[in-house]
Amino acid sequence: MRPAPRSLPALLCCCSAGLLLLLLRWRRWKGLWEKVEAARQRQEEGLDRMDKAVRSFREQHPSVNMVSILSLSLPELSRKIRDGSLPPEHVFYAYLSKALQITRETNCITEYMQESETQLQQARPPGKPGLLYGVPVSIKDSINCQGHDSTLGFVKNINQPMAEDSVLVQVLKRQGAIPFVKTNVPQSLISFDCKNLIFGQTFNPLLYTRTPGGSSGGEGALVGGGGSILGFGTDVGGSLRFPAAFCGICALKPTGNRLSKKGVISGIPGQKSVVAAVGPMAKDVESLALCMRALLCEDMFSLDSTVPPLPFNEEVYSSTQPLRIGYYETDFFTMPSPAMRRAVRETKKLLEDAGHTLVPFEITNVDYVTYNFCVRGMFADGCTSFLKKFEGELERGSMGTFFWLAKLPNCLKTLVSWITKPFVPRLSNIIRSMRTNTVDELWGLHHEIEESCHQFIAQWKKLNLDVMLCPMLGPALGIGYPGKLSVAVSYTMLYNSLDFPAGVVPVTMVTDEDEKELKGYQGYFRDWWDRTLAKAFHGSVGMPVAVQCVALPWQEELCLRFMKEVETLTLKKNQLV
After folding, report:
1. Strand stretches in 287-444, DSSP E
2. Per-residue pLDDT, 1
3. pLDDT tens per residue across span 71-83
4. Of 6, 12, 3, 473, nearest to 243 (Cα)?
5. 215 assigned to a ligand binding site
6. pLDDT of 128 over the 90 cut
7. Is 239 annotated among the ligand-binding residues?
8. Domains and CATH numbers, the chain
9. pTM of the model as a whole
10. Would you please indicate which residues are annotated as catalytic (active-site) residues?
11. Is 7 assigned to a binding site?
12. Residue 161 or residue 394, greater confidence
């Protein structure tokens, strides 16, 4: 016999509960979307205020030549402002106008800091003005500025203004700089693209079908487009160097604690295996050097006593002694594009012709460093901290597969890693590296990273090297490709693991011959990632390609000196062509 339909009330109860749950979810999603729309409206209102301010200035000062102001390098600009020959107001509104143009084209600015106009109107400081007096500077979203959000692309961080400036911003202001805009980032920062649900995709100012890089992509686009003369970002795997290389500008990732990170929000707070750093981005190396001179001051050391009191070493930076330079063309993990390889070879020859000594450096075990130090180190808690960031969020970007894998228990991660190993060995290694570590395992990992660093330095010193010339991933990838190519960070992330200062300098552009050679690109693994990277490089004739300049820890001045040499020799070569 059939049972009596006693379950009908229970069924109705379940349906009611389900409908209530859907209603609650709908209300939550609606609330989140309302926050997104409000943030976008605030962004647009800020751009409108920028436009009105520029129009008002032009009406009052029609004779100001903004083009000539924008053509000045940072050292020239700073000198003219400080000696009184160029009013700070003229500089500010020239860059405000250009920044507005560039963000309309690339969507790089997330927030206009209107208080910058008030700071501009303040009287000239008594005594000698700071090195950056009157210089407008742009700030990455994740670097705290009082009264403004640091969203990291997360909806939950909207309408959460910071109570105080980061130490970096405080020192900039004490040096007379005027922070005037905040710039876009990818959601979570753990990406070398630049897109989030709140503010959308940022585009490369040189070619709109290309990514500007990330995670400091808004800075790369704004500085690369000429809308900011000096920008600041962060780097935990290349996040300064990718945007600089992709947008044809210079950047310096210092040793992790050379500049204060107090008040700078990390994508994965607490992890120590892969060292993050704060650094500058600019059109040329001399601008980076001037910035470091300004920042490495008593204010930096007193506001954050964890920063070693090491002022800028002018003697090292200005030295003209020939350098002994190590170099390599590939890390044997990510096959360089034809333009990348050519960039290193041509720069090597320029340096040799200038009297420097170039020594081949044997780079090894980058695959092991990538999987076991970088991926395992960043996600040593089984990705728990990273996943928590996305709880209650509207979008996870292109990381759907990653999230599915990250949420698996250790036993299933081990199983999936074993199953995929014969077919996709790199994916297998990544999955294995995402397992949750015990405290004992994490301590063992930290010890192994320390030993690896000591071995790398020993190899460096055995060759009696001053600095290292290395490839930098390039040219800029197509929009959407970075999310599919997380393995391509090997050239940059190595120096976060080692915690060496590293900078990038553009040295060439992709040629038709490079594009032809790209047809034969297969990669070292000939897997899906290698095939995808070849597609991402395709169609880049005329786009910039950089090299990476590296020094030992705490030797930023030597790194900058090497970068300056590369830049100078490249400019001379281009003038002769």
Report:
1. 324-327, 357-360
2. 45
3. 999 999 999 999 9
4. 473
5. yes
6. no
7. yes
8. 36-311 (3.90.1300.10), 321-363+451-576 (3.90.1300.10), 367-450 (no CATH)
9. 0.95
10. 140, 215, 239
11. no
12. 161
